[in-house]
Design a protein that fits this description.
Oligomer: single chain
Order of helices and strands: EHEHEEHEHEHEHEHHEHEEHE
Number of strands: 12
Strand order of the largest sheet: 10-9-11-1-12
Strand content: 15-25%
Distance between the termini: 50 Å
Helix content: 25-40%
Largest sheet: 5 strands, parallel
CATH superfamily of the largest domain: 4-hydroxy-3-methylbut-2-enyl diphosphate reductase, catalytic domain
Bound molecules: iron/sulfur cluster
Radius of gyration: 22 Å
CATH topology of the largest domain: Cobalt-precorrin-4 Transmethylase, domain 1
Shape: flat
CATH architecture of the largest domain: 3-Layer(aba) Sandwich
């Protein structure tokens, strides 16, 4: 008997489960870079290194980095004088590096370059004399960071088409729009359409700012969801791109569950399920995908199939201070 099967259960007794695994899934180039920045900073400065906010929205990743010597805090006043601090992949308002400079802290910026690109676009919109309409989710750290790139009163957040209809601006006003990087591709297209309908002269990016990793993971879910009876998305509830993967599947008619670790899975969820889909948000490591597959294999005879919708080759450079 195979030691990995529970007592008295033979592999041949298990019901078959066809598992369609989305590709791409899991870590994106921005998350890889952010984690490497923390690891290299610990080597360079020695532990502890402070990180403002979860470096990426994944408890497993955060716990691993804590073990290596990272201390996670929410605000700079929790960082002792003289200690190095890293800003998370989501980006920070301009006031944060300014405060770090005032205090003479050594800081490193792990903001994803694709988020930084939106920050620069925001500055350009303001330089061009436009008021910015920013499409994003209120309270998400990336949104707080982007709103904090420009003077107060020069940017307005919209989350829905209704918010667009409620905007106080006229067609005479100079307006530009930008978006959070981890939104639903479909919802955002609708909001942009509403904006362009209401303000035909609004200035915006040629392609919206949703990042390659977010769009690719959503496209991969769209490819497998119609073929499965249930989809598991490995990710955290505060991970925007993971939550969007759940939505993409459920809106297409396939139930989906967000799963942080294999231990959360109730085998009863798979009663009557013959084909299961599996993906992971951009901040979820492949180890957790494997953990889930191994757990599924303890009570079902799993056949794995990877469904590749696109290949990703994106790599981002490290900050100068840490490059070899
Ligand atoms: Fe960058 Fe997109 Fe990854 Fe966020 S999800 S870190 S924006 S590549």
């Amino acid at each position: 008997m195979n030691a990995s099967f529970p007592d008295a259960v033979q592999a041949t007794d298990l019901l078959p489960l066809r598992l369609l695994i989305a590709a791409p899934r899991g870590f994106c180039a921005g998350v890889d870079r952010a984690i490497e920045i923390v690891e290299r900073a610990i080597l360079k400065f020695g532990a502890p290194v402070y990180v403002r906010h979860e470096i990426v929205h994944n408890r497993y990743v955060v716990d691993q980095l804590k073990e290596k010597g990272a201390i996670f805090v929410e605000e700079l006043d929790e960082v002792p004088d003289g200690a190095p601090v890293i800003f998370s992949a989501h980006g920070v308002p301009k006031s944060i590096p300014a405060i770090a400079d005032e205090r003479g802290l050594d800081w490193l910026d792990a903001t994803c370059p694709l988020v930084s690109k939106v920050h620069r676009q925001a500055e350009r919109q303001i330089d061009a004399g436009r008021h910015i309409i920013f499409i994003g989710h209120k309270g998400h750290p990336e949104v707080i960071g982007t709103l904090g790139q420009v003077p107060e009163g020069t940017i307005t957040l919209v989350e829905t088409v209704q918010d667009v209809l409620d905007l106080p601006f006229t067609t005479e006003d100079a307006l530009g729009f930008l978006t959070q990087t981890t939104l639903s591709v479909d919802d955002t297209a609708e909001i942009v359409r509403a904006l362009r309908n209401r303000y035909p002269h609004i200035n915006g990016p040629k392609a919206e700012d949703i990042c390659y990793a977010t769009s690719n993971r959503q496209a991969a879910v769209k490819a497998i969801a119609p073929q499965v009876e249930l989809l598991f998305v490995i990710g955290a509830p505060n991970s925007s791109n993971s939550m969007r993967l759940v939505e993409v599947s459920t809106r297409g008619g396939t139930p989906a569950r967000l799963v942080q670790r294999a231990s959360e899975i109730d085998p009863a969820w798979l009663d009557g399920v013959n084909t299961l889909g599996l993906t992971a948000g951009a901040s979820a490591p492949e180890t957790l995908v494997r953990e889930v597959i191994d757990f599924l294999s303890t009570f079902r005879a799993v056949t794995e199939e990877t469904v590749v919708t696109t290949e990703e080759k994106m790599i981002f450079k490290l900050p100068r201070q840490l490059a070899d």
